[in-house]
Design goal:
Blueprint (H helix, E strand, L loop, with lengths): L5 E9 L4 H17 L2 E10 L9 H11 L4 E6 L9 H14 L3 E4 L6 E8 L2 E8 L1
Parallel strand pairs: 1-2, 1-3, 3-4
Antiparallel strand pairs: 4-5, 5-6
Length: 132
């Protein structure tokens, strides 16, 4: 009997317009999904340059897509900096994914299988990385 794969959506982002870096990031995430028996249903990509300070349009499209597919439980990203370098913004994305998309965000941090979790401690937004 074939094990059913968990359906996921992927968000990729590079801070320049290098197609090579995007392909490298995509390969890393695809391998991670393969190792974890995840089926990628959508890959959204954003490129950010000094001239184009993109407001993560691909991420917004990904959230819209995931809202329409309740069978998607995870959004996969390469690392937290793909979302933001600001912990409060990361928290906001995670909260939005949880409350409106009913899914979690998982990172492929340094090739490790880690789960991204947000903890609210005494009104402060903090984040931690936990190995599964």
């Amino acid at each position: 009997m074939k094990e059913e794969k968990l359906k996921v959506a992927v968000y990729l982002r590079v801070y320049n317009d290098s197609e090579e870096l995007m392909k490298e990031q995509e390969k890393i995430v695809e391998e991670y999904c393969k190792q974890n028996n995840y089926e990628i249903t959508l890959i959204e990509k954003d490129y950010e340059t000094k001239e184009n300070t993109l407001l993560k349009g691909g991420l917004e499209q990904l959230f819209d897509y995931v809202q329409g597919y309740p069978e998607i439980f995870l959004i996969i990203i390469k690392d937290l900096s793909i979302l933001s370098n600001n912990a409060e913004q990361i928290y906001d994305y995670y909260k939005y994914a949880d409350e409106y998309c009913h899914c979690d965000i998982e990172t492929v941090e340094n090739g490790q299988n880690v789960k991204f979790e947000i903890n609210v401690i005494r009104g402060e937004n903090t984040w931690t990385m936990k190995k599964r």
